[in-house]
What does this fold into?
Amino acid sequence: MRKRNESVTVEHERAASAAAPAPLDKGCSLRHSLRLPAAAAADTGMKRPLGRHTVPAALWKNARGKDQLWFEDALGSSHPVILYLHGNAGTRGGDHRVELYKVLSSLGYHVVTFDYRGWGDSIGSPSERGMTYDALHVFDWIKARSGDNPVYIWGHSLGTGVATNLVRRLCERETPPDALILESPFTNIREEARSHPFSVIYRYFPGFDWFFLDPITTSGIKFANDENVKYISCSLLILHAEDDPVVPFHLGKKLYNIAATSRSFRDYKVQFVPFHTDLGYRHKYIYRSPELPRILREFLGKSEHEHHH
It folds into this structure.
C-alpha cells in the first residue's frame, strides 16, 4: 500500500460546474494537511509546500463531501493530470491562476499546484534548487497516485524556469512527463532581468551588467531554460502573447528556436503559439483565449495517443 503520509499539503477543490460558476475559492470545504517524510525534509531543508488539487469538472458532483483518500484515488481515474508551476508574484490562489484551473478542469484535467517554499503559506526560504526539489517531490507524489494516466507539466513565467529544471532532471532519470507547456517563458534569468520593465531606466548605464546582473549569476540563480531544453525529451508547447510587458515576446520565440533545433527534441513535437497584440492577453491572460481549448486538445491529444500506444 502507498504511504499516505508522504505528501504535500493539498487543498482539494471541486471544479466550478456550468450550473454553479462560483469562484473555486468559495465553497471549498476540504483542506487536509499531510507532511513530507522526516528524512526527506531533513536532507533537503524542505518545509512542506502547500498546494491545491482541482478535479476535472466531470468529477465535481462526486467530489462533494469526500475525504482526502478519495481525492488521492481520483488521480488514478481516467483523466490526465497537469502539474502547474506558477510565476513569481502572488500565490497559487491568484485570480488569473484560478481562472486557468477552471479552464483546464472544464477540459477534463486534474490540476495540482503548490506554492514554492517561501511563497504564500509555504514556509522556508526560496532558492532555485529548493524550488526545483519542491516541484520534483510533488511530481513524484502525483505519479505515485495517477496510475497510467498522462501527467503534463505547465510552467508560467518564473515557473517556466522551475519547469525546465524539473523536466531536465526527469529526462535524465528516464521518467519524463508526457508533455511540457511553457507559458510566457524566458531564455534565462539574466536575459529576463535585462529585459524586465523595472530595469529599463538602468540597462544602458555603464556598469549595468556588473551592478545588476552579475550578482544574480554569482548567487547561483540561473533558471537556464535555453540550456535545459537541450536535455529535454518530451513534447513541448510554448504559449506567448506578443504584448507581454513582463517577459518580452522575443525571449519566448528565441527559446522556441533553440528547442526546435535541439537534437533532444528530434522525436517529439515542438510547437510555438503566439497571441496577437490586439487580443490584449499580455503576461497572464492567455487563459481567456477561446482558442486555448482547441490548442490543448490538438497538442495534448497527440501526446495522450503516444502515451497509450
Q: What stands out?
A: Residues 1-9, 15-47, 198-216, 305-309 have pLDDT under 50 and may be disordered.
